[in-house]
């Protein structure tokens, strides 16, 4: 019996010892890499052409480690962390421009409505190559953003490269950026709701907008256009709440990280602010992150028709991890998936109806066009001018659409969304009748 016990112990040692050895090798390799970092740190500290503080070197090293993981992970020093917290509350200082980094240049995701960037004509997809004549190439995204921020009423010159054009300069005056994340108005008998970003004010703003539209139109309300174009995203919980406002039940979004047990699913709690009325959601290449969560959820549940062009394709979740007095780190910790299981990372949301942005032109009604009634000898309609038999009532509804606002009339995608809602309302009325 004793011999058997000794044999079992020896066998156990042969199993455990290789594992200990692997762990020791991993630890030794980590120590070697840390010594390499220490050697480089000391060499830069001692021999770099200009004096650099230890604090700067450590911050640069951390920023480099995070920013090379993916475009959205980064280090936030105390000032940047403070700015980020202010921004999520709905107010911050700067130019009013959401950006990412691509090929070493700052790429515009979207300008924020009613900000210096939007008023100056900055467009999604623009590349910012220089700030006040200094090249951006070589800077991290946070460093470039820091340079774009500054005291209110100070100017900054941006050199922009836009597809199909020669590089050009724009001078923007920094301002306090107050984000009103939800705006609304009535277009004909359609409620138009624009969501510009997802911050802590978004869900309350959406509920207020819907209430005001209902109060104004009452039973004449045909449906809603939810405009998410050029919306760069924001808070995940707000995207979930906005989706939940229109979805009665089922999954809204799920997040999956490296550890399977950390996966999360977010489900609707019930209720529909739109009370079953049709919804059209507008998206484009500037619709990212939280915007794509909303569009994907409403599309998968067939609660809305998605119209416009393909969205940006940011399907990852960033977690803000505070680091005490040293700021925080923004780390990509998960991917999100729409209710049907789609990951839109680098793919985006494809609209149900593709509608490119275009300029609306009024056709020439005085042209040479001819109709049957204009032809010599054309037969008369046996039922008269309206084409109906006597005693046949016309279908209830509008024979001509009401005039749109000037803004909607010049917005081709919005005009098509309103036309679609008008058509759905007319079709539903005929089916009921």
From TrEMBL:
Pfam families: CtpB_N-like, PDZ_6, Peptidase_S41
Domain of life: Bacteria
Signal peptide: 1-23
Record GO biological process: proteolysis; signal transduction
InterPro entries linked: ClpP/crotonase-like_dom_sf, CtpA/B_N, PDZ, PDZ_6, PDZ_sf, Peptidase_S41A, Tail-specific_protease
Entry keyword set: Hydrolase, Protease, Serine protease, Signal
Entry keyword Signal: yes
Domain spans labelled PDZ: 83-149
Entries under SMART domains matching the protein: PDZ, TSPc
CDD domains cross-referenced by the UniProt entry: cpPDZ_CPP-like (cd06782), Peptidase_S41_CPP (cd07560)
GO cellular component, one term: outer membrane-bounded periplasmic space
Region annotation Disordered: where it falls in the sequence: 361-402
One term of GO molecular function: serine-type peptidase activity
Family, per entry: Belongs to the peptidase S41A family.
Name of the protein: S41 family peptidase
Lineage, opening ranks: Bacteria, Pseudomonadati, Pseudomonadota, Alphaproteobacteria, Rhodospirillales
């Amino acid at each position: 019996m004793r011999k058997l016990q000794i044999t079992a112990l020896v066998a156990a040692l042969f199993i455990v010892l290789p594992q200990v050895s692997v762990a020791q090798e991993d630890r030794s390799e980590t120590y070697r890499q840390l010594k390499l970092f220490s050697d480089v740190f000391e060499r830069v500290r001692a021999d770099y052409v200009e004096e650099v503080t230890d604090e700067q070197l450590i911050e640069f090293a951390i920023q480099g480690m995070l920013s090379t993981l993916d475009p959205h992970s980064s280090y936030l020093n105390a000032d940047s962390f403070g700015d980020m917290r202010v921004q999520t509350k709905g107010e911050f200082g700067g130019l009013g421009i959401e950006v990412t980094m691509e090929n070493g240049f700052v790429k515009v995701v979207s300008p924020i409505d009613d900000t210096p960037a939007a008023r100056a004509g900055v467009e999604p997809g623009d590349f910012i190559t220089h700030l006040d004549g200094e090249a951006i190439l070589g800077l991290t995204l946070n460093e470039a953003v820091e340079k774009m921020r500054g005291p209110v009423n100070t100017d900054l010159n941006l050199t922009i490269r836009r597809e199909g054009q020669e590089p050009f300069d724009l001078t923007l005056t920094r301002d306090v950026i107050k984000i009103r994340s939800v705006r609304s108005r009535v277009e004909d008998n359609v409620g138009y709701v624009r969501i510009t970003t997802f911050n802590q004010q978004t869900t309350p703003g959406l509920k207020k907008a819907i209430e005001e539209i209902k109060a104004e139109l009452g039973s004449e309300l045909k449906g809603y256009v939810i405009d998410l174009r050029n919306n760069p995203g924001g808070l995940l919980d707000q995207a979930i709440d906005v989706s939940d406002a229109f979805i009665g039940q089922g999954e809204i979004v799920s997040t999956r990280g490296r550890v399977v047990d950390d996966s999360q699913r977010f489900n609707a709690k019930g209720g529909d602010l739109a009370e079953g009325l049709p919804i059209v959601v507008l998206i484009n290449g500037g619709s990212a992150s939280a915007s794509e969560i909303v569009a994907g959820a409403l599309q998968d549940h067939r609660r809305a028709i998605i119209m416009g062009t393909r969205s940006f394709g940011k399907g990852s979740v960033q977690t803000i991890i505070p680091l005490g007095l040293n700021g925080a780190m923004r780390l990509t910790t998960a991917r999100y998936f729409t209710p049907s299981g789609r990951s839109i990372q680098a793919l985006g949301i494809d609209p149900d109806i593709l509608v490119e942005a275009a300029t609306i032109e009024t056709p020439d009604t005085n042209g040479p066009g001819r109709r049957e009634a204009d032809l010599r000898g054309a037969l008369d309609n046996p039922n008269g001018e309206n084409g109906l038999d006597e005693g046949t009532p016309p279908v209830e509804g509008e024979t001509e659409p009401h005039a749109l606002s000037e803004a909607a009339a010049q917005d081709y995608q919005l005009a098509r969304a309103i036309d679609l809602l008008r058509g759905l309302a007319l079709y539903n009325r005929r089916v009921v009748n």
